[in-house]
Amino acid sequence: KVAIVGGGPSGLTLASILKAVRIPFTVFELDASASARGQGGMLDIHKSSGQLALAKAGLLDEFKKRMRVDATDLYVRDQTGEIRWYHTEKENPDPERPEIDRGDLRNLLLSALDEGDVQWGKKLVRAEKEGVAQEGCFSLYFANGSSATGFNILVGADGTWSRVRPLRSNVPPSYVGMTVAATRITNLDDRLPELAKFVGNGTCMSVEGKSLVVAQKSGDGSVNVYSFISVPEDWRETSGIDWSNQRRGLTEFVERYYSGWGQEAKSLIIECDEGDLAIRPLYRYPPGHRWEKTSAGVTLLGDAAHVITPFTGEGVNLAMHDAYDLA
């Protein structure tokens, strides 16, 4: 009896593979439903890792129907907006790293499951192992007061701040020295056509030193923008920027950290839809760290096991390959 905590790419990939080989499981996911919140931008799913897992789940053909070859366009620009490098796989009918919207990937993985395989609205508070036997049972306790018990295999796929991880390690993730301001602009083509042209159909990266602005165009015409800066971990609270007025706060943010940049990169940040701003410090586990606790029947996938900074899709592909290896 397998419990999978977390309905992100790693947890749902494992679930879809277990479904294909008829191993019973239950996924516990904190989101209230599959559509409770937006899933963010795009993910490039690599042939040598993520696509292997989809093939094992019997989902590769359907993935190829949903993948966005046009979104493999990648522009690398300097701070002025000048193109320094361009790459695309859109002429390749079977690309190495095709893109898919995060929401489409989740829906694809859920399509392999039956109703009831995922229990929604289950935010894990703690996981406990009952008894001392090698084949002990695990109990899960959730924020809504409910619980589930009787599992002999527990898989933590619940992200950076995993509540399953303490069964294997007490070492917390460490701050990498960078924070990202995540913003979003809907309907970019109609609202800001010149900015849409600047971004292109896929990913546009503007780089200067340790500062980076990444824009990704989703299939629905929205653009997710990620602005990376090197600041202390508590920067949001100590920056002195008043975030109560989003546009004013973003304007001050741009003036402080991107003052010498081209107007397009600045506009990608400032033109964010109201309410779509998130400030996220970035974390990782210490390089070379190994779990110091032995606990039979417990393992971790994806960010719960080895969170890394988000870049070139390696995190999600490693997470999906974790599921491939485990299954």
From TrEMBL:
| GO MF annotations in UniProt | FAD binding; monooxygenase activity
Please tell me whether the keyword Oxidoreductase is annotated for this protein.
Answer: yes
Pfam families assigned to the protein according to its UniProt record, in alphabetical order: FAD_binding_3
Keyword Amino-acid biosynthesis (UniProt): no
| Superkingdom to which the source organism belongs | Eukaryota
Please tell me the species this chain comes from.
Coprinellus micaceus (Glistening ink-cap mushroom)
Query: Which keywords appear in this protein's UniProt record, sorted alphabetically?
Result: FAD, Flavoprotein, Monooxygenase, Oxidoreductase
Can you say what this protein is called? Answer: FAD/NAD(P)-binding domain-containing protein
The chain positions of domain FAD-binding read: 1-166, 297-327
